[in-house]
Amino acid sequence: MKEDTYTMRFARMSDSKRVYKIMEHMEQEIDDTSIFVADDKTFVKNHIEKEGFIAVAGHDKKIAAFLIVRFPEDSEDNLGLDLAFDEEQLNRVNHMESVIVIEAHRGNQLQQQLIEFAEPVAKAMGYTTAMATVSPDNPYSLNNFLDLGYEEMLRKTKYDDVERIILKKEL
Ligand SMILES: CC(C)(COP(=O)(O)OP(=O)(O)OC[C@H]1O[C@@H](n2cnc3c(N)ncnc32)[C@H](O)[C@@H]1OP(=O)(O)O)[C@@H](O)C(=O)NCCC(=O)NCCS
């Protein structure tokens, strides 16, 4: 399906179940944690409420895609730690954490549109260093980040033994 009527908006608490369901479904579809690692329900709720935000692409009153943006601050998953950032730099990091476009809506550049929606919001909130991890086996996601000016900083084994490319962009 190729449609161009998508509405970019912030997720509300009432979207959390749906976002989580999409993630669960994706985990079944991609039965390969080397490409995609799902988050849990609490993680989704926390990111609507306090630890970041979730951007969604709405289509015909349904969610076609979403992006979880995380403000890791002093958490041990802060990707700035992999680049030996100091405390001030760590506090400015945001993660473009998890992005899923429902299969029927792929090919409409929704990943890029969601990231472009999220970047100025994160920047305005003081999180001016955008970071992400991508599997080297996921060219779709990797190319979308590179197209938007993200740069490869490091390749490393993360999340219980899967290879990841760490990307960064100053907003
Ligand atoms: C990565 C992802 C978000 C990209 O979706 P998207 O924004 O719709 O991708 P694009 O619009 O850039 O697609 C560009 C082309 O690649 C194709 N494509 C995108 N993702 C694809 C996939 N997973 N498998 C096969 N083809 C894919 C599109 O159909 C399109 O082809 P076209 O130019 O012939 O129309 C999407 O593939 C996805 O949700 N994957 C599963 C979850 C995931 O891997 N997330 C990233 C890590 S957290």
Q: Would you write up a description of this structure?
A:
The longest helix has 15 residues, at 110-124. Strand 6 (151-158) and strand 7 form a beta hairpin. The chain has helices at residues 16-29, 41-49, 87-91, 110-124, 139-147, and strands at residues 7-10, 52-59, 62-70, 93-101, 129-134, 151-158, 162-170. It is an alpha+beta fold. The mean pLDDT is 92. The chain is built from five helices and seven strands. It has one domain: Gcn5-related N-acetyltransferase (GNAT) (Aminopeptidase), CATH 3.40.630.30. Helix 1 (16-29) packs across helix 2 (41-49). Strands 1-2-3-4-5-7-6 form a seven-stranded mixed sheet, sandwiched between helices. The radius of gyration is 15 Å and the shape is globular. The chain binds coenzyme A (COA).
Short summary:
The chain is of the alpha+beta class and 171 residues long. Helices cover 30% and strands 31% of the residues.
